[in-house]
Amino acid sequence: MNKERIGLMYNRKNNEVERRRKRRKIVVIIVLIILAIALAFGLDIFFRTRRLFNRIHQEVDTIDLRAEQNLPELALNNTPFSILILGIDSESPGDPGRSDTMMLVSVNQNERTAYLLSIARDTLMPIVGLDFDDKINHAYAFGGAGMSVNSVQNFLNIPVDFYVTLYTDGFGPLIDAMGGIRVYNDTIAFEQQGHTFPLGYINLHGDAALAFANMRMQDPQGDFGRQQRQRAVIGAMTSELTSFRTLIRYRAILSSAEDNLITDIAFTEMIRIVIGSTTALRNITDLQMRGQGQIINGIYYEIIPEYQRLEMSQRLRRHLDLE
Questions:
Q1: Distances, alpha carbon 261 to alpha carbons 86, 97, 145, 292, in Å
Q2: 196/286 Cα distance (integer angstroms)
Q3: How many CB atoms neighbour CB 125 within 10 A?
Q4: Are 79 and 66 in contact (CB under 8 A)?
Q5: Cβ-based neighbour number of residue 274 at 10 Å
Q6: What is the pLDDT of residues 81-93, one digit of tens each?
Q7: Pairing assessment for the beta strands 299-303 and 292-296 based on DSSP bridges
Q8: Quick one: residue 301, left, alpha or beta (phi over 0 = left, psi -120 to 50 = alpha)?
Q9: How do residues 45-78 score in pLDDT, each as one tens digit?
Q10: What is the tally of helices (H) and strands (E) in the chain?
Q11: How far apart are CA 102 and CA 153, in angstroms?
């Protein structure tokens, strides 16, 4: 082999080594750029979400049932917890309104399960802080979220660890910010406010979702059918909020939430809920108490039989590892 050929081979080898080095540099640069973008994206989500929770966070005075009954203190990493969701029929957080929608979520991270219980707005129960029984949806008008929480705790004999209020006018925009939701309608096909809702899976955006959730006059089950559709919508929203798709819409979602949500969940608690409860919140079981309508002094109430109240209380207490 002559020197010229050896030189060519040597040059080719050097050129190949150089090309590999350049490719490695390009790959490293691309990876670093992606990591920098991901870091900036993550930090933006982190700081925007923290700012949101600082703005919407509002503590209320409630009875600490865990301390009163010597129950396990709340440690979100492994202690089951509950959240009371209040849909308020007013236009903004400045208006008192009433809790037109009320749902209790219980989450057991160890079992990776969650329950979603509808509480009919006309349910007659003792209003804690007042000296009479009334519809539970009046508790919010009388004493805000604190009175609603205390009354539900007393009625079901379980601690309510957190509350979330969502104002009616913010329901649609929040769903629109998510890009819509998909629900399964197994109650009744109907039309409401210019929207058509067939049986089966349907895609819903803001105004349509609100019309779907609130219809009751055409439903043979009345408010019970409405509660079922409301649970379907809340379940779909929960699934959407815990999905990867929401990351690309996080600014719109946070902006909508800031205008329409109030909660006593702190930012650090929210982080632990998201980390520890995502799987459970995708495995939701619907619950419902069915009472009997009764007119008392000319006013309609929903009367929950005592045996049913006790059964629901025991089921929730077991799910929350309280007995």
A1: 10, 14, 12, 32
A2: 25
A3: 21
A4: no
A5: 14
A6: 999 999 887 655 5
A7: antiparallel
A8: beta
A9: 777 778 888 888 899 999 998 888 888 788 776 7
A10: 9, 14
A11: 13
